[in-house]
Amino acid sequence: MKVLVLSNLYPPDVTGGYELGCHQVVEALRRRGHHVEVLTSSPRTPVSAAPGVQRVFQLSDVYNSYIMERSTALTRKLYEAQAKLVNAHNCHQLLSWAEGWRPDVAYLWNLIGVGGLGLVACLHHRGVPWVWHLMDSVPTDLCACGWGPIPPLVREFSRQARGSYLACSTRVLDEIEDHGLSLRSASEVVPNWITGAQSSSCRQYLPQGKLRIVAAGQLAPHKGTDRLIAAAGLLRDRGHTNFAVDLYGKLNSPAMPDLVRRHGVEDFVTFRGPLPQSELVGRYEDYDLFAFPTWEREPFAFAPLEAAARGCVPLMTADCGNSEWFVHGVHCLKAERTPEAFANVFADVLAGRIDLEVLGWRVRSVVWRDYHLDAVLPRIEAALTRAARQPRRAVGAAAQAYRLALLAEKLTAVFLQEAA
Amino acid sequence: MAAKRIAYLMPLYFDERSYLGGGERYPLNVARGVIAAGNGEYHVELISYGPSARRETLQPGLTLRVLPASNRPADKLDVVSWELPAALAEADLVHIHQAFTRSSEAGLLAAKQQGKPVCVTDHGGNSSTLGMYLDTLSLVDLVVCYSRFGASLLQTTTPLVVIPGGVDAARFAPPAERPPRDRILFVGRLLPHKGVDVLITALPPDLPLTVCGRAYDDRYFRHLKDLARGKHIEFVTDADDDMIRGLYARARVNVLPSVYRDCYGNTHRAPELMGLTLLEAMACGTPVVCSRVGAMPEFVRDGETGFVFDTPDQLTRHLRHLASHPEVVERMGRQCRDAVLRDYDLKVVGEKLVPVYERLLRRRQGVAA
Lengths: 420, 369
Known about the structure:
The complex is a heterodimer of chains A (about 425) and B (about 375). Chain A has about 425 residues and is an alpha/beta fold. Chain A is about 45% helix and about 15% strand. In chain A, strands 3-2-1-4-5-8-9 form a seven-stranded parallel sheet, with helices on both faces. In chain A, strands 12-11-10-13-14-15 form a six-stranded parallel sheet. A two-stranded antiparallel ribbon of chain A has the order 6-7. In chain A, α1 crosses α15. In chain A, about 50% of the residues are buried. By secondary structure, chain B is an alpha/beta fold. Chain B has helices at about 20-35, 85-90, 100-115, 130-135, 150-155, 195-200, 220-230, 240-250, 275-285, 295-300, 310-325, 325-345, 345-369, and strands at about 5-10, 40-50, 55-60, 60-70, 95, 120, 140-145, 160, 185, 210, 235, 250-255, 290, 305-310. Chain B has an eight-stranded mixed sheet with strand order 3-4-2-1-5-6-7-8, with helices on both faces. In chain B, α1 (about 20-35) crosses α13, α9 (about 275-285) crosses α12 and α12 packs parallel to α13 (about 345-370). The longest helix of chain B has 23 residues, at about 345-370.
């Protein structure tokens, strides 16, 4: 099967698990004998060329908060429109590839930054079937400019989109549908995964009674880093000193170290910086709990899963996307997203009221069995195959699609400027 | 069998609440012609814009759908609505009226993106050059022109058909009993490119003139009133169709003196793509006089249904001639009515347009199959 993958970023140029996951699936599909080409954006910093990866898209990097915050309102809107609605250059690239390479199916990932709606419209125009892997509310975000989703745009997307979806959690689908996009009938929930081979190491929990807590990824309020620091403070206030919290990830501002000082937990909380993913997963064996007080709209983060595969028990916000896949007290621990609730669990573990060893063994087993990419990939493959077998009906020629993209891009810019 | 749904997209519609011009009356007339020629197989929906959404039935098979405007453009032709893609989704074919406006560009995008067959008729509106820059006419399946002059202005490789006319000869008909013909008449919007100032200047002082039309340009209207001092000129700025029919009936001649270069020095590339009021007067059995401008000479048969003039002096001579030869007026008037019934009535246009639509719809079905 010829699979054309579209993704805003692609390793080694990444912001998070979405792009890493994309890369893992691409490599797995290739190993299964599929011909996979990736269309992505030119990298934000130089990277080496890789076979089968075409870095031909322009990226409107709306994730660059430094630039966005310093732009005028109109510039921001124009930038956002190009990032989400349509980028004619990227449409041209896609159409050229679709014409020259003739994929059986397009496999869409995160399309924010590359004018995702325009790309989807081009696929429709040329009758290329598609499957969209959702690890976030990307379709909703693409229909939003400024403060939130634009209802008529959401309506039109729902009416016209004719593809299928793989979503990493029902939370993602719920969130998308709460904004009026209707995907449910064309969607399938497929969990995120781990990769690699299982090590046979026998691990230890709470050595010398010390609770070793880890968190990794973005160190930011929406991931709950601030609550975790506060929980460490509460635990210390209750008289516990035999614990450590290690935070892995890039610090983008001094806010979190300031918070550690404010809570007076410098002796307990350590910023360990970012690590390559391969190195990080090895470190999880040295920890007892992966603390994840993330926001409720967390779709399904990879890091807790990777930690669980090493027997590091996830403690997570009770109703985030990750939590719907695991049972509290069986494979994981769930808590309210408050410092108090997290501190209570830490205290229970320290007091021996929770047996981490049993939880760790169970979650490790279930993750290697059900959440390894080898277990998940057949479902992905089946979805791609189903899509590829659908009858194709092109609406018009590639040149027509490109001219429409140009018209859409310029009309959008004119409307935004006139409305400013 | 379900009726084929044709959407007529136009930035403005013929109504006091929107705009009263030939470019707005034409789609309404042609829609009626298509319905008449289609024997119940066609439903035409006029889609336009307003402050709020509404839908009304104008006659069986003909609806007007007003979409809530999403913007407040400087030029009224640049209006758009978020509701447009959904409104066009119901159509089997989209006929866009006005070629180079923001409304038409958005309509073309929404229609072609949904794979609809699209034809376009240019009415001379020129509020956006974006479409010309991107050659959006090449996205269109067919350009429908109502004059050879109009067709000559469009540089496009897209197939093009000329179907002249589109007047409602049932609505505009000779009166059962014609009142005395006692005046020269102008009917049209009071805008500089209409050349009403030329007519007033050329008007012999002893001949009465009625100038009938909406005063859409205050400065020009004041200028016309200044020019009219000392002459027998009446301005009617609020006439409805009944009144206009009465004026046609009483007119010796209806004059359309449009210009390429107006009294302010502004040039107009396409002042008249047809001159619908000429055809309305002809339908009422009233001779017509026009300047040799735009498409008008294609519709006025010089010496048979009226006269075509090149200079104000010629205009003056034609007016004097017709005023002093009532038998010529009556003969020309009869020939006018005959010409309209034969060539320019909306039913004739509808009969020519239906096969055009059928070809486009068949081609679309072929693609779908």
